[in-house]
Amino acid sequence: MKDTIVLYPCPSKGHLFSMLEFAKLISKHRPSLSVTLIIPTLPNEETNSVDSIIATATSINFIRLPPAALPTVPTSFGDIVASLFELPQLNNPNLHQALLSLSNSSVIKAFIIDFFCNAAVEISSALKIPTYYYFTSGVSPLCNLLYTSTLDKNFTQEELLNVETVINCPGLPTMSSGTLPLVLLDRSHRSYRYFVETSIQMGKSAGLIANTFESLELTAVKGIREGNCTPAEPRPPPLYCIGPVIGKGESKNEEECLSWLDSQPVRSVVFLCFGSMGVFSANQLKEMAIGLEKSEVRFLWIVRPPPADGETKGECSLTVLNDLEYLLPEGFLERTKGKGLVVKMWAPQVKVLSHESVGGFVTHCGWNSILESVCAGVPMLAWPLYAEQKVNGLALVEELKLALRVTELEDGLVKGDEFAMKLSELMNSDEGRGVRERVTAMKYEALNAQMDGGSSQVALAHLLDSLRVSDSQNTSTSSQNL
After folding, report:
1. What pLDDT is attached to residue 288?
2. How far is residue 35's CA from residue 14's CA, in Å, rounded to a whole number?
3. What is the per-residue DSSP string for 403-451?
4. Who contacts 15 (Cβ-Cβ below 8 Å, separation ≥6)?
5. 306 — phi, psi (to 5°)?
6. What's the average model confidence in pLDDT over 346-365?
7. What is the C-alpha to C-alpha distance for residues 401 and 381, in angstroms, rounded to an integer?
8. Fewer CB under 10 Å: which end of the chain, C or N?
9. Residue 380 pairs with which residues in a beta bridge?
10. Distance in angstroms (rounded) separating the CA atoms of residues 144 and 297
11. What pLDDT does residue 468 have?
12. CB burial of residue 185 (10 Å; 0-12, 13-18, 19+)
């Protein structure tokens, strides 16, 4: 029977596509292994875009699980996060059958899961299959996640809600509790307990696989490998840094953005893009426009409609506002014509960042965006919005020094004058040039990590070699349980 590695992603597109690219890496590095992705289906999911992406991965086998029905429809951001943990629990019977079927023709060497799929450990443990976690983000937020169970023991919710509370998470710069993801500050919501349980389980796993490269996050890597993030365990799980793993994303119309960039001077344009969930209030959009105009920098700005009343920054927008003239200050588009381009909703981010005209990137600090910017050698202005992005931004600015940071008022608003100043610093100051030099150097570190003999290639080889040892210890027992 053929040796097989099974990967189990979270169905959220960013997580799914990252794990798919990782699966391709495994298949390319070790063609003798069979690689299977078991893909959950979100309720009411449009599968066409996912199917079109996976259709190109001819070296990978796919099993689609049937849709699982949630007991209630998520109505808040916290509920959406919780549902990502709950869907795998609901899918455990389907997953169990899929693994049983697969085992009839294959020897399952390893089960690699997204951290949102933590509930699947119940199945893999019963079947004695070594279980690894693939973390689609970097090691810095991984330190924070692993340390969550310690925070749960050492701090009360009241202490963490006090923004003056100091957190010393191993592998990260000293931070205030306000840097933590909001889901870790509300212990009354069920999503909080899911993170604590996942933190504990990850510390017991066969290994942790991170989408990063070692030289990018040396301090964070050390924090995990020395066991400081998982003090309850006698020894930390092995950590494999196999990145950067960057997907190609979806194919959409991209001519307008790239053609406009072709007409701009080299490294003169600031690219502003905040991910698929990065939305701002109408007031904040106007302040951003004021800052762009005052800074006099060239810009390519991707604008999403502001949230409806009652929504909060970082949640999915429910309002369809397509009139840029309404969203932005009167006359802004005309006054900045030629120097700036405003595009609604989407741009081909990887291609934009790789364009020679782009000299800066204003980012929400999603990990995929950080990696794409590093690999393109583009300095960043950090504007984190939600989830682990504040932790990413802290590491990016304070530890890695690959970005500058905007300063928010107490209500979270970034004023136009502040934004203009930071844009000018990024593009024109000595401090901005220093960031550019460090990002350029890290670009070549990323390239070297992916080359034969590079740190990420070596880490991937060590991971795959370790499966032989794990399998020899577990195959006979697994066969009995199957």
Report:
1. 98
2. 20
3. EEE----TTSPPPHHHHHHHHHHHHHSHHHHHHHHHHHHHHHHHHHHHS
4. 9, 114, 116, 136
5. -70, 160
6. 96
7. 11
8. N
9. 361, 403
10. 36
11. 77
12. middle
